[in-house]
Amino acid sequence: MRNMLREIEPSPLVLVGDSISRTIDFEESAARQRTSVRSGIDSQLDALKRWYDGLGNFLTEVVNRLNGTLPEWARTYIRSCVFLPQLGFLTVVDLDSATGSGRYEGEGADGGLWDKLFATNETAYYKNQYMKELDAQYGDMYCEIGDREVEIIHRLAAAILAHEESLLAASDVCGEFDALLALAIGAEKYNWTAPQMTEENIVKIENGRHPLQELVVPLFVPNDCDIRWGHETSNIAGHEPRQILALTGPNHSGKSIYLKQVAIIVYLAHVGSFVPADRAVIGLTDKILTRISTRESVCRTESAFAIDLKQVAQAMQCSTPESLVLIDEFGKGTNPDDGAGLFAAMLGVFLARGSRAPKVLIATHFHEVFERHYFRERCGLVLAQMRVEACWDANQEDKQVTYLFKLGDGYSTTSFGGQCAALNGVPSAIVEHAEVISRMLSRNEDIGTALECPSPDEVQRLTLAEDVARRFIQADFGGSETAETDQAPLDVKSALLGILSTVN
């Protein structure tokens, strides 16, 4: 705080503050909804304001003078004279609802008929010769007051700009102090802890939380993170290299939130803030490179997949061993086989760098990359999953899977896309149909029949055929050995005719 205060020059600030407070009338500015200058600053402005403030008495005199020039019968229709900014002086006359004009329009008066400017429900506003003379004599005082105040405020602004450097320095210091104060208040309010910064290449977080997500959910499940690399820890028992974390798990299980919360904690630690975690050891990080969100725009002639590729390419080219790289669902915007191939190749490149690889957190649905254990024995790779519990006995689709939002070891082999769809309001009929098609695809079966959608007439015929088949199965055709042979065929024939009679 003392260092901040040393950067502020008090004299220019006092001078600027005094100039503003002496010039601007803040109470009047709030009342008029525009900047207003205090009295005593400019004599010309004060004279205009005094005249404008006494306009009510002056307009009373104007009405009396005007009535003195009008026929006696017309005076009863004259309500008043007013002054409106930009329109000047106007005469207000009672409105004749039948004609939409005033009951008197200057008949028999000097200067001819009056000019009607506009009308309200009960009155009409006119410009006559006397009003024009007043406009020429006094002008538009309201606009003159505004113009004069603009000139004075412009001079004030020019005088303030002479102290621009001191003001900018003070603004920067106050902004920094405001940010630090906000971080301190947030740390105390939300139970954040002080991180431990180290030169070791490590990110170790215990019970980390997403600072925003935990504020909008009833219960937030914290998670740990432990990724590290370098000669400082690689030969210590229990501190084997693990610079790449490959995270799998179903849709809606919290993978993206986990990646983001790690990045936020690392960033907050580097700006000097407490972090949302029980404990955090953060190594010095030079860059945080991400492929999480795709920002599309009509101004960019690139597909979403091309944008993803460029983000990953930049992360691979610009990352160093001290960098943190976050990649979420890379490869999903193209053919699944091509996407899985690109994902596996990217992962292989990071692993091949060895000690020169950055710290990487990857979330993916390409389970097949890990199912055949291609990367199981690679040094530095850790497989993790967001845990769920499945209960297939539940009647409702959205109750069959419980998301625990907890990080666990190993990798997931299911996405539970149908359950995620049910949670988000997709009709159960569509979800069930989708699961049938998914199982057929996994067995390399032809999905043509599953995709066929019968017409309403076909549905009606199939329903009728099903009803006939059920009646046939339930029918009793006699069939006993004692039945007469010549009568049995007739009974069967009658029964069949009765069943088939519903077809027509």
Structure description:
The protein is an alpha/beta fold and 504 residues long. The protein has helices at 2-6, 10-23, 26-32, 43-53, 55-67, 129-138, 141-161, 164-189, 213-216, 255-270, 304-318, 336-352, 368-371, 417-423, 428-442, 448-451, 456-474, 488-500, and strands spanning 78-84, 88-96, 101-102, 115-119, 123-127, 196-198, 202-208, 223-228, 244-248, 279-283, 288-291, 324-328, 359-363, 381-390, 401-409. The strands form three sheets. The chain has a six-stranded mixed sheet, with helices on both faces. Helix 2 (10-23) runs antiparallel to helix 7 (141-161), helix 4 packs antiparallel against helix 7 and helix 14 (417-423) runs antiparallel to helix 15. It is flat and about 115 Å long. The N and C termini lie far apart (94 Å).
Work out the radius of gyration.
Answer: 42 Å
Shape: flat
Counting helices, strands and paired strands, the structural category is alpha/beta
Distance between the termini: 94 Å
Number of strands: 15
Strand order of the biggest β-sheet: 11-12-13-9-14-15
Number of helices: 18
**Proportion of residues in β-strands:** 15-25%
Catalogue the unreliable spans.
231-237
Largest sheet: 6 strands, mixed
Quaternary assembly: single chain
Helix content: 40-55%
Mean pLDDT: 84
Domain DNA mismatch repair proteins mutS family: 323-339
Pfam families: MutS_V (PF00488)
Keywords: ATP-binding, Chromosome, DNA-binding, Meiosis, Nucleotide-binding, Nucleus
GO cellular component, one term: chromosome
